[in-house]
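Why show two proteins at once? Because comparison is the fastest way to build intuition. When a single record is shown, students tend to memorize it. When two are placed side by side, the eye starts asking what differs. So, the first record is below.
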Amino acid sequence: MILVTGGTGMTGSHLLLELISAGEKVRVLKREYSTTGWVEKVFEWYRPDDHKALFDKIEWVDGDLNDLLSLREAVKGVKKIYHCAALVSYAPSDKAEMKKTNIEGTANLVNAALYENVEKICHCSSIAALSLPEKGEVVNESFFWKTSRDNTYYAISKFGSEREVWRGSEEGLDMVMVNPSIIIGPGDPSRSSGMIFKFLLKGLNLYASGTTGFVDVRDVADVMVKLMNSDIKNERFIINGENISYKELFTKVANCLGISPPKYRAGKVLGEIAWRLDRLRCLFAGGKPLVTKEIAGFINRQIFYSNQKIRNALNYRFTPIDDAVSNTCGFLKRYYDK
């Protein structure tokens, strides 16, 4: 039996499809209020003829990483765990919840895995948990965490979750850790990178001046499964397809959707104005900010990530980002109602 956390997210849904298609028995821990509609749409997108039969093979269990009783029940009889659950937010108001979910929740899962003699765990972390580079450096797996005022609350929480997994490895739990760059793929457009596509469809006319890494969600799921089925253990791997600018990505997405690409560069000054105005909007209108000080700070950085280690370890070839964008656009054109 395999346990997956975060199975209702983009990465989790693709991972479920890969595992179920390979004949694995899969249990998914989900919160009681989480819905599975987008997961079923992902299954239908790739497997239109037999998606219902495959989807019905998933064992869904309600629980929470911080509900120790439900967590212990979910881990019983499990040999492998894929830990994809995390709260992703750049809103300062979510700092405490990120700590509880991402750090304390991971600690609880590791403890349950140790107690139930789980054989191996794959922790899906993030490039956010790696140290920020100096100018001209390319980030690789040797970049260890450095305390910095530029570290986001989300990055701090993911680094904390990694420490819990490394602690588990020291106590006898075999593990592999992946640090994906920004993941592109079909899924709920109101979450993660899906918001890029959503905002462009709604007429976003600004682009950031920074550069970062992007990767196809199918590659992330595939690499995770290959690592878990290998003898590799107690190592981390950056999962990055290409390093491209936000402008280039936004242009690719806009062209694929048949809309005009953003025309105006959101530089540092405009970014500083934007997050302040958005904070005022939230004060008067309520809701969470769409643009925060953290987001405005890092979207104009030039950061490049190496994928050499995973390419060497698995002789892996990544899907071009053009294909990832095309796949996502096709999915949204079918399933997303603006």
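Second record. Ask yourself what differs from the first in the token line.
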Amino acid sequence: MKRFFILICCIAIAFASCRKENNVSTDPSHKLVFSTDTVLFDTVFTSLGSSTLHLKIYNPYRDDLVISEVRLMGGEQSRFKINFDGETGTEFHDKTVPANDSIYTFLNVTIDPTDQRTPFVVEDSIMFVTNGNLQTVKLVAWGQNARYIVADQTITGFPAFKIVADSLETTHWTNELPYVIYGYALINSYGTLHIHEGTHIYVHSGGGIWSWSDGQLIVEGTAEQPVVIEGDRLEPYFKSQPGQWDRIWLMDGRPGADHRIDHAIIRNGYVGIQTESFLKATQCALRLNNTVIENQMGWGILARAYAIEANNLVIDNCKHYAFEVQLGGDYLVRHSTIGNYWWQDGRSTASLFFSNAAEQDDVLYEFPFHFEMGNSIVYGALTEEFGASFSANEVDTTYLFDHCLVKTEKYSNANPGFSNCIFNEDPLFVDYRNFNMHLSDVLSPAVGSGSPVIAAQVPFDLEGKDRTGTPDLGAYQY
């Protein structure tokens, strides 16, 4: 019996030693599968603290996978720390994930929300290299103490969003803490978002504020406490970098519930404000007063078949159009300044552009168009800062520039649509490279050139200075 037991043990040992090990895959089509593509630490820290989450890494194949390299891209300077398969560090090599199995990576982040150098959104990523394939997983944590609006819904063809004002609901944003938008903050149909004076809104890359059809946006800043909407990167380098976030997007509105923006600063995005109304064109207006839109990677205002009334509006430094109107609409602009000196790279589009038609699938769609600008400035670095493309058919189309300074070589006061205008004379802005569009000198042709009749409709400039005596052109009285 003893001999038989020994024999069985020897056979078992021999069988185990001869058992075939799993093959290691070298197939470039074999990739890792992760439990998520973004590890989100959604704790809002109110004091120095840390949080730990995990990432599961799957190998769904019949052969082993060897991860030739794992790297925390921020290295030793990263606020994140990783423990990969039992080892702590920032770089790992030749780690095997067994066939049809998985391994864990534990992730830790430490945040001091009182450190003003900490970004609102702290990001890093982990890079994995397997069979020549490079894959990444994003790491995202909240930094400084703020109110975070994080997208949690998607609709095919639209960006991710979070409803911040639902139907028949009015939501108030106040200035006790800044708001950080990650994705889009959406105002649902028959909902209202009311943003109060002094509120500071930081928007992460690709995000914005979006009013769905029949929603309403009210921004109510003051001269002393404007509402500021800008990107969430706080490093000095990003102070004047355009394109850091996407846009304010206003769709069809309901009659009697106009969008209103007063005393706001909208900077460093892709489109400052985009308005579009196809089902109920011009039934809802955007009332835009005492607002600065600056340093946009695309447009300052992009309007499609909308109604906009703007007073004391400043638009400066946009790569494409500062103010473009597509598909007609109804526009009234008074005492406003468009100064476009985009210097980051080339610009070939005029600051102000109109159109009243669009062609799709060989069908021409035409819309009525009315535009009136008074006591305003349209100037910039190009020779021609005004352009238009109108349908040749007799669609209802009118525009009027009354007591304006316009940079154009195509038009003069002899042309219909221009009255008492100044052409191609430098308005002498204080410092357009630093977005200061005040008039710098009493010798500016804009000083004292306004119509008192128009000034009486907008008696105070953007900073509250009385202009009714001898009005200047533009948003600022000298």
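One difference worth noting in the second protein: Residues 99 and 237 are 46 Å apart (CA to CA).
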